[in-house]
Amino acid sequence: MGYTKVWADNEKLSKEEKLKLEKDGLDILNDIPQYAEEGFASIPKEDWPLFKWAGLYLQKPKEDGYFMMRVNVPSGILSHSQALILAGIAKDYGRDVIDITTRQAIQFHWLQIEDIPDIFRRLEEGGLSSVGACGDIMRTIVGNPLAGIDPNELINTQEIVQDVYDYFQHNRDFSNLPRKFKVSISSNLNNAQNAEINCLSFTPATKEIDGKAVHGFHVYVGGGLSAKPYLAQELDVFVRPDQVNEVTKVVTTIFRDHGYREKRHRARLKFLLADWGPEAFKEKMEEFISLPSKGTNRFETWNAGYFYGVHPQKQAGFNYIGLNIPVGRLYSDELIELARISKEYGNGEIRTCNSQNVVIPNIADDDVDRFLNEDILDRMNIAPKPFIGSSVSCTGIEYCNLALVETKERMRDIANYLDDHLTVDVPVRIHMVGCPNACGQRQIADIGLQGIKMKNKDKKLVEAFEIYVGGTLTQGAQFNEKLKGKIEAHELDGVLLKFIQYFTDEKQQGEDFHAF
Ligand code: SF4
């Protein structure tokens, strides 16, 4: 152990903290081979929460012994062979289902403990891993899905993200954080990383140093969603690209040693930052590292991670093409087909986006028309209808133990219904979540739909939704606000139709939902 657990003597630690002191989350990796041999019944219940460190959650209902697995995809960049490995795992063990998450990761469902060693072996062969994708540890790092090909980036951040990921992933100095720790590192000028909702974000910046303009990063700390959302606050520092890993270490160390561990719901970095303020946080950082003050923030706008259509790359003569994956769900054969076209027309890469969509890069000008004639693009459209193209959904009750309502299929059905009945000249981003945890990031949506249970007029407990409006990360970022009332799930499509119809009738040409 390379450090002292400064909080270990605190008698008021939450029960989760006490468990982590007895057994480090990463220790579960040593136990999994034996559990796989002896079967699900051999796993003691107190070990169930530790599976998160291996990227595994028990899906609903827990007693049935099926796992959800989340696989890290740093910057969302998958090679051809990695995509085929993922498709093979879903086909052989996961009933074909593959979800793209709002952190560019990949999720499987229906896995059984007996299958996990072979799944780990396949992932490792492909240079992939699920370790740290869940649990009180650094989660999959969000990056620029266009890293290296992006005409709108200052720096190619692919290697920087990979270095930070490699440093932290199995690092036992940082495997017991107070809670999950979400990092984004991107140099995309359109804030594709959703910087303000991460615990720690490195964002594009330029600073004059010794008479030369140096491209690097600004640092935002303390963002996060869930029941009490906070926007990250900017620190007055400038970070060179070669300092990103060190600064990440410093911020993670402060979180590890000073983050709150008494009450689980107060354990995210956002609460520490809210109490300390950015100035005090920066002073604490200065005990570890000296950084110059801010330069110029280079964000130009916010694209929410959407890249639909054909776009020229940094490399002359090549294009990246953004495809819609409705609500982020695809099936093994579809991923195999995406891998085939990515190889036939590009360099085999598929890049996942935090909007739950994909980009296929490196397609030569001469190949674009043939690419656009591929049958798979009928389902994974490059110019999707506005509602299905701007819909995001969390996992929901189908697999998630915390969910109060069904989300994925419902969001897809509602989006298709709205596309059939409404015409809009601007996207209306609708995000659906099954509980206040907000994995579907409902707080930053134009329209956020949060599932609840309520009693209907017949006193029956039914699925329902709260509606929130006006979220954005454009300049003057703000979370959406709750409208009065609750809507029973079966009435949601009709209510949204009327509500958005009012918006389209009243708004001016080109005016978007937030400005309205
Ligand atoms: Fe589950 Fe809630 Fe996250 Fe949806 S938002 S996946 S229901 S925890």
UniProtKB/TrEMBL annotation:
<dbReference type="InterPro" id="IPR006066">
    <property type="entry name" value="NO2/SO3_Rdtase_FeS/sirohaem_BS"/>
</dbReference>
<keyword id="KW-0004">4Fe-4S</keyword>
<keyword id="KW-0560">Oxidoreductase</keyword>
<dbReference type="GO" id="GO:0051539">
    <property type="term" value="F:4 iron, 4 sulfur cluster binding"/>
</dbReference>
<keyword id="KW-0479">Metal-binding</keyword>
<feature type="domain" description="Nitrite/Sulfite reductase ferredoxin-like">
    <location>
        <begin position="62"/>
        <end position="125"/>
    </location>
</feature>
<dbReference type="InterPro" id="IPR005117">
    <property type="entry name" value="NiRdtase/SiRdtase_haem-b_fer"/>
</dbReference>
<dbReference type="InterPro" id="IPR036136">
    <property type="entry name" value="Nit/Sulf_reduc_fer-like_dom_sf"/>
</dbReference>
<dbReference type="Pfam" id="PF03460">
    <property type="entry name" value="NIR_SIR_ferr"/>
</dbReference>
<feature type="domain" description="Nitrite/Sulfite reductase ferredoxin-like">
    <location>
        <begin position="311"/>
        <end position="373"/>
    </location>
</feature>
<dbReference type="InterPro" id="IPR051329">
    <property type="entry name" value="NIR_SIR_4Fe-4S"/>
</dbReference>
<dbReference type="GO" id="GO:0016491">
    <property type="term" value="F:oxidoreductase activity"/>
</dbReference>
<keyword id="KW-0411">Iron-sulfur</keyword>
<feature type="domain" description="Nitrite/sulphite reductase 4Fe-4S">
    <location>
        <begin position="391"/>
        <end position="516"/>
    </location>
</feature>
<feature type="domain" description="Nitrite/sulphite reductase 4Fe-4S">
    <location>
        <begin position="135"/>
        <end position="287"/>
    </location>
</feature>
<keyword id="KW-0349">Heme</keyword>
<dbReference type="GO" id="GO:0020037">
    <property type="term" value="F:heme binding"/>
</dbReference>
<dbReference type="GO" id="GO:0046872">
    <property type="term" value="F:metal ion binding"/>
</dbReference>
<keyword id="KW-0408">Iron</keyword>
<protein>
    <submittedName>
        <fullName>Ferredoxin--nitrite reductase</fullName>
    </submittedName>
</protein>
<comment type="similarity">
    <text>Belongs to the nitrite and sulfite reductase 4Fe-4S domain family.</text>
</comment>
<dbReference type="Pfam" id="PF01077">
    <property type="entry name" value="NIR_SIR"/>
</dbReference>
<dbReference type="InterPro" id="IPR045854">
    <property type="entry name" value="NO2/SO3_Rdtase_4Fe4S_sf"/>
</dbReference>
<dbReference type="InterPro" id="IPR006067">
    <property type="entry name" value="NO2/SO3_Rdtase_4Fe4S_dom"/>
</dbReference>
